[in-house]
Amino acid sequence: MTSLLTLISRSLRRAILPGLIFLITFLIFVTTRHLQLISSRCPNRRPKLLSRTRNGDAGGDHAGGSRAAPPDFYLFVLGSGGHTKEMLMMMDDGFCDVANVHRRYLVSSGDAVSRHQVADYEHSLALLCAQHGSDSSRGRDKDKNTHTEGDADAEGDSLGSSGSHDVVTVSRARRIHQPLWSTPLTALASILDILPALLTPPPNYRRGGRSPRFPSIVFSNGPGTGFAVALAVHLIKMFYVVPEGCMKFVYIESWARISTLSLTGRLLYHMGLADVFVTQHQEVADRYGLFNAGEMVFNSRREDPPR
């Protein structure tokens, strides 16, 4: 009997030991990668990624310019309760160097209002860029000697274009008044929906071309889904699914947060998941040691064009 128990004990140790070694190795890897990614971020430094929207001569031409930006791919996390409207107001800066930019909008299931607001914004942007292209074409006609024929053709291909966009629907990370105990389950379901949105190339992507396969920047301004997106980005970088240089997570705290961070903001702040973290009020910035970008929600530089 004793020998049988000894044999069983040895068999269990042989079966459990590899599992324990794997678990310990996995935990060490995850912890090391997490700390490595966190240490590479400086969310409280003055953000260069937002310089264009706050400075007419930094990072691109204004509506009066004529050069389109290089191909790029941005992802915007939208949310109900005013977050979508606020995000679109920050985007509405009057620039038209978006001919080669693909914009992907992430909306939560059941949020029909955000879809309508995106459609209105894209329609307004298309009208603005079409007007910009028309004005620039007339300007070139008056000054034909300043460009070669090749330059004019290349430039004309991009003028008047507002780029491309698509809208992706994901499960809501947390419903309003949802009990906290059930939030991890809905957040996990949301992350499973978010991963394809992050990893699927834009429709105009061509392998081997200049167009980026993954979003270069992910923008969020407060909805709960924003935390799920930031966590998903962190996880796929942790396991080397995407390069560390892409999917920079930019978090702009909601304009409504005057003195404290929102729940999403606090989670991102304490977990260090944002590459850039800015507020829109000095009181919040001083309280958490963050950079105050000013009231970006009032960033619009133009009136809405007639429909």
From TrEMBL:
<keyword id="KW-0808">Transferase</keyword>
<feature type="compositionally biased region" description="Basic and acidic residues">
    <location>
        <begin position="135"/>
        <end position="150"/>
    </location>
</feature>
<dbReference type="GO" id="GO:0006488">
    <property type="term" value="P:dolichol-linked oligosaccharide biosynthetic process"/>
</dbReference>
<feature type="region of interest" description="Disordered">
    <location>
        <begin position="132"/>
        <end position="165"/>
    </location>
</feature>
<dbReference type="GO" id="GO:0004577">
    <property type="term" value="F:N-acetylglucosaminyldiphosphodolichol N-acetylglucosaminyltransferase activity"/>
</dbReference>
<dbReference type="GO" id="GO:0043541">
    <property type="term" value="C:UDP-N-acetylglucosamine transferase complex"/>
</dbReference>
<comment type="similarity">
    <text>Belongs to the ALG14 family.</text>
</comment>
<comment type="subunit">
    <text>Heterodimer with ALG13 to form a functional enzyme.</text>
</comment>
<keyword id="KW-0812">Transmembrane</keyword>
<protein>
    <recommendedName>
        <fullName>UDP-N-acetylglucosamine transferase subunit ALG14</fullName>
    </recommendedName>
</protein>
<feature type="transmembrane region" description="Helical">
    <location>
        <begin position="12"/>
        <end position="31"/>
    </location>
</feature>
<keyword id="KW-1133">Transmembrane helix</keyword>
<dbReference type="Pfam" id="PF08660">
    <property type="entry name" value="Alg14"/>
</dbReference>
<feature type="transmembrane region" description="Helical">
    <location>
        <begin position="219"/>
        <end position="242"/>
    </location>
</feature>
<dbReference type="InterPro" id="IPR013969">
    <property type="entry name" value="Oligosacch_biosynth_Alg14"/>
</dbReference>
<dbReference type="GO" id="GO:0031965">
    <property type="term" value="C:nuclear membrane"/>
</dbReference>
<keyword id="KW-0472">Membrane</keyword>
<keyword id="KW-0256">Endoplasmic reticulum</keyword>
